[in-house]
C-alpha cells in the first residue's frame, strides 16, 4: 500500500515537472522557414503594430511617473528611508506587471481585437507581445538611464527586441510557459526585495520568508535558464546567424546578471541576502550617504557641546533663585526685627509716661 502511494506521488511529481505537459505540439518550435518569412504578409499591419508599440511605451512612461510620485509621497509619510523607498517602488511595479502578464497569458481568448477608429486589427496574442515588448523597452531605458545598470538594461533590451520578436513570429503553448516562468522568476525576487525593505514592519519572520522565496527563485532560475531555454527554445541547426547571435547575447546577459554569481561571491558574508538582491551602490549614493553621516555626527556633537552649557545655565539659575529666596528671608527677618524693636520702644515710652503721670 505504501509503495503504491509513493509510486503514484512520484509519477505525479515527475509529470508536474515535465515540460511536455505544456506542449500539445512537437518540441521543434523554431521553424527556420517561419523565422525568415513575413508572418503577416501585410506591411500595413506591421506598421500599425509598431505604432501601437510606440504608444504603449509612452503610456508606460507616463504611468510610471505618476505611480512613482504617488507611492513615493505615501512611503515618505510612513517615514521609510530614501533608498528603501525607491527599491519598494521598483519591486511593486515589476510585480504588478508580472501578475497581470500571468493572468492575461494564461487566460487568453482567441478572438481578434478591433480598433475601428484607428484601423487596428490584432489578436490577443499580438497584443500580449506588444505589451511585453513595450514594458521591457521601458524597463531597459530606466535601468540604463536612471540606475546605470547596463547588464540588466541590455538583457531587457535584447529580450524585447529579439526574443519577443521570435515569439511574435511563432506562437504556441511553450511561449506561454516561457513567459509564465519568467514572470514567476521576477515576482519571487521582487517579493524578497520588498520583504527586506520592510523589515521594520515584518521583523525576523519577514526575513525568514524572504530567504525561503529566494531559494525558490534560485531553483526556478536553474530550471528556466539551464533546462528550459537551452533545450526547448534553442534552434537545432545553426543556419541563421542573427537568431543565434541574439539568443547567445541575451542568454549571456541573463547569466551575468544572475543571482548565482553574486551568491558565489558573497556566500560567506553576514549580509549575503542583501548583497544578492540589491545592486551595489553607485558613487553618488556613497557620497550622499557620507554627507548624511557627517551631518548626523555634527548634530550629535552640537547637542553634546550644548548639553553642559545648558546644565551650567540651569545650575546658575537655581543658585540665583536660592540666593534670592535667602535674601528675601533675611530682609523679612530684618523687617520683623525692626518692627519688634519699634513696638518695644513705643511700649517703653508709653510705660514711662504712665509712671511720670502717677508720680505727679
UniProtKB/TrEMBL annotation:
Keywords: Membrane, Transmembrane, Transmembrane helix. This is Uncharacterized protein. The chain crosses the membrane at residues 51-67, 88-107, 153-171, 177-196, 208-227. It comes from the Eukaryota.
